[in-house]
Specification:
Layout lengths: L3 E3 L3 E7 L4 H6 L9 E7 L2 H14 L3 E7 L15 E7 L2 H17 L3 E3 L7 E7 L4 H7 L7 E6 L1 H14 L3 E6 L8 E6 L2 H20 L4
Antiparallel strand pairs: 1-6, 2-3, 3-5, 4-5, 6-7, 7-8, 8-10, 9-10
Helix pairs in contact: 2-3, 2-4, 5-6
């Protein structure tokens, strides 16, 4: 099985080194601890969630806002909107810079969706995080450093693939996101040993490909 990567496109990266307290509060930051914000939009939401988590491993930043946009990047509200807005906050503007650098590196070299069929009409996100950072570990109720399989696909494919993933390895469900999500996909977070998360993610991706080839049974 060969899956072709779909590189995420970062649409905007802006910094607010001395954000107004009202803006800080509106986006979940704490003006007593945060002075600076880093804002990113991208055409892949789940890749960006992973990249935001990666930022917390490399800088003293908090992910204070991360929200997917309804119907996905193909129906964005503007040229720079994409599929998600993510916001990092820190006391020191230099930490925001370091966090953004780590985030962009992750999007360029690590986290992405893959084409699961020849036409590129089906996309899958079978991503394994070997060591969770502060952001996703808190969202998942896990500890920083735990491994997690982050699995996303269109609704039917995701449902069949999740069943296969859970049967393929010694993993447990952290959270299931039934369809429709904001972007009309479905997702699941699984945890276990890294090798088991990888086996589950492989089974998930293989099943999405198989369903695409044989949608009727």
């Amino acid at each position: 099985m060969i899956l072709e990567p779909i590189p995420p496109i970062v649409l905007s990266v802006r910094r607010l080194p001395g954000a107004h307290p009202s803006v800080l509060r509106a986006y979940g930051a704490d003006p007593t601890r945060h002075t600076s914000l880093g804002l990113v939009t991208c055409d892949q939401d789940d890749s960006t969630y992973v990249a935001l988590d990666e930022a917390t491993k490399h800088a003293a930043v908090d992910v204070v806002f991360a929200r997917s946009f309804y119907a996905g990047a193909a129906h964005a509200s503007g040229r720079l909107s994409g599929e998600i807005l993510g916001v990092l906050a820190a006391e020191d503007p230099a930490e925001v810079d370091a966090g953004l650098e780590a985030l962009l590196t992750c999007l360029e070299h690590d986290a992405c969706f893959y084409r699961a069929d020849e036409r590129g009409a089906i996309a899958v996100f079978p991503h394994v995080i070997a060591s969770l950072g502060q952001y996703l570990s808190a969202q998942a109720g896990l500890a920083p450093g735990d491994a997690m399989a982050y699995l996303v696909a269109p609704p039917l494919e995701a449902t069949i693939a999740l069943d296969a993933a859970l049967k393929a390895a010694e993993v447990r469900v952290v959270k299931i996101f039934p369809p429709p999500t904001e972007t009309n996909y479905a997702a699941a977070w699984l945890t276990g040993a890294q090798v088991d998360c990888e086996a589950a993610a492989l089974a998930y991706a293989e099943t999405v490909v198989e369903v695409g080839r044989k949608p009727h049974c």
